Every structure is written in C-alpha cells, then in structure tokens.
Amino acid sequence: MSLFSVALLAGCGSARTVAVSDTSTQTDYKVRIQRNSSASTSDTIAAPARDLAFEVSGFAGATVGTDKSDEKTSVTQAAIVDAFVRAMVEARRNRGQTTGDFTTKIGPRVTIVHRQIGDGYEAQITLMARGVDTTFIVRDGVLKHEPHDLKLLRQVFDETNGEFALLGTTWKPVQRGCEARVACYQPAGMEGAVAGATAETSTPTP
C-alpha cells in the first residue's frame, strides 16, 4: 500500500526557485531537478515562475530481500509515478473533477490513465518520445514491468510545462522503500487550472 501526504501551501508566495536534491544514500537513484533558468546541468528543468499550490508524497515498498540495482530502480520509479499521479488526483479534486476513474492528456505526448480497483488503484503514464510510446504502469505502489530509462520519466514532468515538478526521492531503509515528493504549481495566467484539464475523458469503472 502506498503512503500519501499532501501539504496545501496555496497563498504562501511565489515559488520562483526550487532546488531539492535526493537525500538517499543510494547514489544510483539520486534525482536532482532545479527549477532555475540559470542552471545548466542535464538534470535541470527551466520553467516559468509559478505559485506553489501543494506538495504530495508517494511511497513504494520494497519486496523482502530487494537488493539488486534493477529492483531498487523499480521501487524508485514506482514511488515517483505514485507521487505524480496522486498530485494529479489532488489537483483534479481541487477543481471539482473526477478522481476515481479518468483519462487525461498533458500536451500532445503524455496520457495518464487512473483506475480505482477495489481499495487500491492502477495508474498508467504513457509518454510518446521520438515516435515510440513508453508506458509506466503502477498498481498499488508496485511497478508492473521492468524499469524504463529514468530520463523518460523526467520527460513526463517536462511535458507538464512547469505545473508539476519532481522535488526528490529518498530511500527509507527502516520502512524498506522509497519516498518521492512532487510539487504542483499554479499554471501561469490560468488560475485554478491543471495540466490536461481540457483534454480528458472518463474511464468506465471496470
């Protein structure tokens, strides 16, 4: 099961620069994203200044005996997807939109599908890059396939035009899992809007 927390920070001022690095001791899974147009590293996202709306934490647990690099990569990617989708759900809730079963697009290259399954959920994030579709599938905090290139997951955040940003990931040895934090920013010039709000369809309950 996933861990979900939301910090509502609306009205707390403009979040013009956010620079948060991963505090995990697992350097293979370090994520560093700076929302600062003056930075020049390959891990940097330059985006317009936005007002911070809220932050969300997602969590993915490791299986017993998880110690291989690819297994920890899977857990880390699952935590990032979990946090991102929960941020999307919270943004939709704030707009009075459906939060159970939905399909929404962010720009022309990202599609998000969310399904409520019993007490849990399944989320799919599909990115079209260089003519190839890559889908991240997470069910109840577990990645349901081999991990993809982390750069593709970072591209998903790029496509949100600065409305969502990955703040960092932290490996939690005691909880045996990974926590990811995602921020949601108010769209520039579109108060109360959220990425993909005008291009969505409802998904029938299975």
Descriptive account of the structure:
This protein is of the alpha+beta class and 206 residues long. 17% of the residues lie in helices and 38% in strands. The protein is built from two helices and 13 strands. The strands form three sheets. It has a six-stranded antiparallel sheet with strand order 10-9-8-7-6-13, with helices on one face. Strands 1, 2, 5, 11 and 12 form a five-stranded antiparallel sheet that branches. It has a two-stranded antiparallel ribbon with strand order 3-4. The radius of gyration is 16 Å and the shape is globular. It starts with a strand and ends with a strand. Mean pLDDT is 75; it is low at 1-47, 190-194 and 201-206.
